[in-house]
Amino acid sequence: AQKVTQAQTEISVVEKEDVTLDCVYETRDTTYYLFWYKQPPSGELVFLIRRNSFDEQNEISGRYSWNFQKSTSSFNFTITASQVVDSAVYFCALSPAPYSGAGSYQLTFGKGTKLSVIP
Amino acid sequence: DGGITQSPKYLFRKEGQNVTLSCEQNLNHDAMYWYRQDPGQGLRLIYYSQIVNDFQKGDIAEGYSVSREKKESFPLTVTSAQKNPTAFYLCASSLPLDEKLFFGSGTQLSVL
Q1: In the A/B pair of chains, how many CB contacts fall below 8 A?
Q2: Strands B4-7, B10-13: pairing kind
Q3: Quick check: A37 and A93 in contact, CB under 8 A?
Q4: Which of B4, B38, B43, B74 would you mutate first to test chain A, the one with the most A CBs within 10 A?
Q5: At a CB cut-off of 8 Å and minimum separation 6, what does A114 contact?
Q6: A84-110 pLDDT, tens per residue?
Q7: Mean per-residue pLDDT, A51-80
Q8: Which residues in A49-63 are b (16+ Cβ under 10 Å) and which e?
């Protein structure tokens, strides 16, 4: 069975601070995808990134960066110079890859980390 | 603009009543999904549909029903058999065999 653990339930930072959101996963699959989604107060989840288990390169997109470490089963997300607009709930998720269409659909979400950025 | 529209934003259910949540998408996606979100919890899959006229149960399908008569629409009915329906319901869609989901803005269902 798959499992995603986001140990940080809530985090508060002051604007312009850096913050890292932790994600630890468990899976028996040899290939899988990892995701991060953002849920702002409006409620709609927004896709941020998908990472294939074969690709352990870190990724940077503007103020966002992701650190994938297979050895520790972690896929952490760092926001540099945080802004008030970053306040949201962030979900890490995991699925087997590729999804073959056979059997049950398996995208497992963590419980989320609520980030509050204080001006 | 393409997207997913969920309605209503807030819905109240009386005891023993069935209620239907609407989800419409104009992204031309074949796959659609319903998730339930409880406070402090992750998203749990209720039902999904990979193609019109076909759908499968997710992890928590009991007390819910769906239909997929049109590609654009995937309504969710919360039946009276669902004893704890209060939650935030999210609809999503994707391209075939693609785990990248596009979400609607959700419906908050409460029990009167």
Answers
A1: 62
A2: unpaired
A3: yes
A4: B43
A5: A9, A10, A11, A88, A89
A6: 999 999 999 998 876 655 445 678 999
A7: 92
A8: bebebeeeeeeeeee
